[in-house]
Amino acid sequence: MNDSKHSPLVSVVIPCYNAEQWIESTLQSVRAQTYRNIEIIVVNDGSTDSSEARIRTFDHPRLTLVTQPNRGQTAALNRGVSLSSGDFTQYLDADDLLHPEKIERQLRLLEGNGGCIATSEWARFSDEIRTARFVPDDNWRDLDPVEWLISAWRDGGGMLFPAQWLIPREIVERAGPWREDLTLNNDAEYFTRAVLAARRILFCEGARAYYRSGIQGSLSGLKSRAAWISQQKVIEACVEYLLNREDSDRTRRVASLLWRRFAHTTYPYDRQIANDALRHAGALHPVSVMPEGGAFFRLTMRILGWKAATVIRRFYYRFRYGYA
Q1: In angstroms, how far is CA 230 from the centroid of its own chain?
Q2: d(C-alpha 45, C-alpha 304), whole Å
Q3: Are β-strands 116-125 and 200-212 bridged in parallel, bridged antiparallel, or unpaired?
Q4: Strands (E), 30-103
Q5: From residue 63, how far is each of 39, 51, 55, 297 by CA, in Å?
Q6: Helix 186-197 and helix 145-152, axial crossing angle in degrees, nearest 10
Q7: Spatial CA neighbour of 231 closest among 242, 221, 243, 245
Q8: If residue 226 lies in a helix (H) or strand (E), which one and from where to where?
Q9: Closest to 149 (Cα-Cα) out of 36, 235, 251
């Protein structure tokens, strides 16, 4: 498969904004791939640190670096895809990593399986990749698109991590561009479309991706009203996509859980958005779910209710750790 004359080209698309601490490691994880027919498209989205300089010193025969004014992650992704020419697309954030065999394993799995996309094992890590712990999930198996989304969202959570996927170009084109009006959780909206554009989701055992978590100032940590509104738009879109494919008790149940979990998260920060989410949830399905937390949180919730408990927890974190 590694004969570039006869093997498909894989485009690794990397949006980069102020990632000087991690971009070299991320690029090295691509260069270390056992599959060699790869092009790398890095879109430097107006970084103000040394990211661009570090990328320019990186040695790879098929590395394209594009620099643009800061327009946001999704605009950078769209630019990268527009410049790519691969038969398959591998999305990769500028701080995440791939196992050396990740792409090769997924390509072998997709051979002869037209219309499918491949997903992988993935795990979180902070500084050292050796700390990553791969914990099998219920959707680490082959599933039809609707079944995959139901499994991913079964508790109102789930994460559609960009690096875990390998997507044929025709499905990238069928899914359409990244929505540039979204900031928080834009990957959930995009990959919901990609999943539903596929014939089947194939899980690739042994293919691994690493998600770097705990980065201060990351998009996933935003708690502004603009970020909550973006998340609200994401859930609205994801629910619409899912119900357009299958409007049933089971799809309405998981859609309701998405809204309820969102309400739990947002209530201490924006009660209007949280209450709107609860109204959406109630209109979809009567399923009930409570916020999760430690022993003190659960006791507070039993006495005062979940809304008061989440507010108290927020102020405790602000007092104890300086953030909320």
Answers
A1: 14
A2: 46
A3: parallel
A4: 38-45, 63-68, 88-91, 97-98
A5: 6, 15, 9, 49
A6: 150
A7: 221
A8: helix 225-245
A9: 251
Give the amino acid at 310.
Answer: T
Q: How far apart are CA 233 and CA 308, in angstroms?
A: 26
Structure tokens at 306: 């979940």
CATH superfamily of 10-215: Spore Coat Polysaccharide Biosynthesis Protein SpsA; Chain A (3.90.550.10)
Contacts of residue 210, Cβ cutoff 8 Å, sequence gap at least 6? 96, 97, 98, 99, 122, 123, 124, 125, 129, 132, 163
Residues of the chain with CATH 3.90.550.10: 10-215
Nearest to 152 by CA among 119, 106, 174: 119
Return the percent helix, strand and coil in the chain, to nearest 5. 45, 15, 35
* β partners of residue 166: 118
87: region left, alpha or beta (phi > 0 left; psi from -120 to 50 alpha): alpha
Residue of 156, 241, 165 whose CA lies nearest to 197: 241
Would you write out the chain's pLDDT as a tens digit for each of its 324 residues?
555 557 999 999 999 999 999 999 999 999 999 999 999 999 999 999 999 999 999 999 999 999 999 999 999 999 999 999 999 999 999 999 999 999 999 999 999 999 999 999 999 998 888 899 999 999 999 999 999 999 999 887 778 999 999 999 999 999 999 999 998 899 999 999 999 999 999 999 999 999 998 765 545 555 789 999 999 999 999 999 999 999 999 999 999 999 999 999 999 999 999 999 999 999 999 999 999 999 999 999 999 999 999 999 998 888 877 766
Angle at 225 between CA 224 and CA 228, to 5 degrees: 90
The pTM of the whole model exceeds 0.85: yes
Please name the amino acid found at residue 68. Q
Tokens of 179: 């929505």
d(CA 269, CA 30): 39
Per the structure block, which two tokens stand in for 203? 């899980």
Neighbours of 35 (CB within 10 A): 21
